[in-house]
Specification:
Protein-Tyrosine Phosphatase, Chain A; UDP-N-acetylmuramoyl-L-alanine:D-glutamate ligase; 6-stranded mixed sheet; 17 strands; 450 residues; 8-stranded mixed sheet; alpha/beta; 16 helices
């Protein structure tokens, strides 16, 4: 049997649009026929278990992690499919909170490839998505929480018919592929909405919400909107995170009410993640769990509270150290950068910040820098090891045109050391790859100093 490394290499000959962003996001390049053909050859493993499907521009990974933690704490054997990964590929495909083993992965690749050869044009992401679906069927999960890779309508994950569809916060991202208006982006994300399948949605700009409401009406899918049907209010913040309260809407099914989800009652939860935007994500997760419970995946309020209290989602507003204060966050567009600055101001008032920023080439670099620069005492620009990383000289030029002095540092570990030398709080951000390398660099630094 090929090794894990050999198995990853065997997949490299298939088109990988996580790396190659020069193609058009349109039927032909992206379509569901290939995926359905491959899954049919595998016995349609995605139909062996119920699922929850999550799309969005920001917060879909956090929401997926929260839903999975709640369901697992509620006694269900869970699958979790996310992308991209932080450090190792196995993070993308989890069962009961554990990444797929290297042996399992290698065996499934060996089994999958002969089938893949019969499907012309099959892509890397389609293959690993099919592999994940097959893994969940083999491991007999009770439910799989599936995060969309890109967009929604044409994404390889969109072959499932879930118990509930979730759309998290929408903002401008991948505009060359998904469209340059919020309405176009919302149309692509709303592509995951299935006939008669309930939808949970985060608060949206009016332009985006109008599209989602129209698609729900066309497909006879009930819509539960956070901030309307589901209310949330923030509570105190503390060193371990924050608390908040949620009120269930009128019309909670009787079977769900029986395990503690009573309409109109404020319920308190604790969350170990910082940033008020995480309250919206958590409320989406709770609303999705209640919808799933109505379909038979019962979870008590107590189990939901335990799940949220235990959720772990690294690289998103993650406090790597408090003395000195070092934060890693994968803010990848202007909206997420704005939320990052708001979070830093609320959680750590009065601090002066040194930002270490690196972006990916298909992002709106100016939008990210425009949000960060007013909060920056010092600005360093760098690049991750990703093949899609932006040249830091380009970032520095944009920063200077925006009125900021930016220092170029070629690698994340060196940028971290230079940032610490300023003696201010440090935040490393701009992409998830920067957050991942920041975590690795901090861990290596800590080892050297012990």
């Amino acid at each position: 049997m090929p090794t894990y490394e050999q198995s990853l290499a065997r997949l490299e000959r298939f088109a990988n649009y996580e790396i190659n962003r020069s193609v058009s996001y349109a039927p032909g390049t992206f379509e569901l026929g290939r995926m359905r053909a491959l899954l049919a050859r595998l016995g349609d493993p995605h139909r062996a278990y119920p699922s929850i499907h999550i799309a969005g521009s920001k917060g879909k990974g956090s929401t997926a992690a929260m839903i999975e933690a709640i369901l697992r704490r509620g006694g269900h054997r869970t699958g979790l499919y996310i992308s991209p990964h932080l450090h190792s590929f196995g993070e993308r495909i989890q069962v009961a909170g554990a990444a797929i083993s290297e042996e399992e992965f290698a065996g499934l690749v060996d089994e999958l490839l002969p089938h893949a050869e019969t499907v012309p044009g099959i892509t890397w992401f389609e293959l690993i998505t099919a592999l994940a679906f097959l893994h969940y069927a083999r491991r007999r999960v009770d439910v799989a929480v599936i995060e969309v890779g890109l967009g929604g309508r044409l994404d390889a994950t969109n072959v499932i018919t879930p118990l509930v569809s979730v759309i998290t916060s929408l903002s401008y991202e991948h505009t060359a592929w998904l469209g340059d208006t919020l309405a176009q982006i919302a149309f692509e994300k709303a592509g995951i909405i299935k006939p008669h399948v309930p939808v949970v949605c985060a608060p949206q700009e009016a332009e985006a919400l109008a599209v989602i409401e129209r698609v729900c009406a066309e497909r006879h899918a009930t819509l539960a909107l956070v901030g309307r049907e589901w209310e949330a209010r923030p509570g105190p913040i503390h060193e371990q995170g924050q608390s908040f309260e949620v009120r269930c809407p009128v019309g909670v099914p009787a079977g769900v009410a029986a395990v503690g989800w009573r309409a109109g009652e404020w319920l308190r939860f604790d969350l170990p993640l910082i940033g008020r935007h995480q309250i919206v994500n958590a409320t989406c997760a709770l609303a999705a769990v209640v919808q799933a419970a109505a379909a038979g995946l019962a979870v008590t309020v107590e189990a939901a509270a335990d799940g949220l209290r235990a959720v772990h989602w690294p690289g998103r507003g993650e406090v790597l150290a408090r003395d000195p204060l070092v934060i890693a966050d994968g803010a990848h567009n202007g909206d997420s950068a704005r939320k990052l600055v708001a979070m830093l101001e609320e959680w750590f008032p009065g601090r002066r910040w040194t930002f270490v920023v690196g972006t990916l080439s298909d992002k709106d670099h100016a939008a990210i820098l425009r949000e960060l620069i007013p909060a920056a005492a010092h600005l360093l620009v760098t690049r991750s090891q990703s093949g899609r990383a932006t040249d830091p000289e380009l970032l520095a030029g944009i920063a200077r045109r925006l009125g900021a002095d930016a220092r170029v540092v070629d690698a994340v570990p060196a940028a971290l050391e230079q940032a610490l030398a300023f003696g201010e709080a440090v935040c490393l951000t701009g992409s998830l790859s920067i957050a991942a390398e920041a975590r690795a660099a901090w861990a290596a630094r800590s080892v050297r100093r012990t």
